Amino acid sequence: MLHTETVTGETFELLKTLMQDKELANFYLVGGTALALYLGHRRSIDLDLFTPFPFDSETVEKYLVGKYNFDSDFRRNNTLKGTINNTKIDCITHAYPFVEDICVSDTIRLYAMKDIAAMKLSAIAGDGSRLKDFIDIACLSVKLSLSDMLEAYQKKFEHCNTISPIKGMTYFDDIIFTEPVVMMKGIYDWKKIQKRLYDMIKEENTVFRSFPV
Question: How confident is the model at residue 213 (pLDDT cuts 50, 70, 90)?
Fold first, then answer.
């Protein structure tokens, strides 16, 4: 069962509609919203739809504009970004292997948790500015050990070593702490998030019992 309470009713209905559209059959939900639906830890408002295949962004743009009144604000090869009814939509080619099979729940196609964990670690290793990525990785620790996540990272990004994401998990200078994050239970406590990240590295094979909130 997905934690549909983490998104607005309008966003979830839009997601279901897009998932049932045959023209978008090769797109799957990823990112923070997919993880929020899995874990139920925080609210999320964006729909990141990834495909393993290249696509003609101009053709997809015209289709979405015509059928859903899509408001496009960025387009390039294999990438399309915009909004539908004020919901941010990203359509992007993710040309990396699946770690696990696609999950289908309530008609929603989602990347598996291990795939999302690998992408979150990659984001932390490569940028490290998004507060939500750190919170998401910390909360993922109730489902996956860091060892599981790093194994997934190496499977997806075959030519990358695990040193960068491990270092990134404890480097906080670039984090934009003004980024709004709405947890489902109370306000996030950065000190608890930070401690969980350190504990994950110390206890690499541990799956923790509760969210760090």
Answer: confident
In a domain, 208, yes or no: no
- Phi, psi (deg, nearest 5) at residue 103: -95, 140
Is 211 a domain residue?
Answer: no
Identify whether 136 is part of a domain: yes
What domain count does the chain have? Answer: 2
104/131 same-domain check: no
The count of C-alpha atoms lying within 13 angstroms of the C-alpha of 149, restricted to the half-sphere facing its C-beta, is 32
Partners of residue 83 on adjacent β-strands: 71, 88
What pLDDT was estimated at residue 186? 87
194, amino acid identity = Q
Domain extent for 160: 113-202
User: Any idea what DSSP says for residue 207?
Assistant: P
* Residue 189 identity (one-letter amino acid): D
> What tokens does 204 get?
């690499």
The two three-digit tokens of residue 87, written as one number: 């919901």
Q: Are 31 and 91 part of one and the same domain?
A: yes
Q: What is the pTM of this model?
A: 0.96
Rg for the chain, CA atoms, rounded: 17
Identify the residue whose tokens are 């539908």: 84
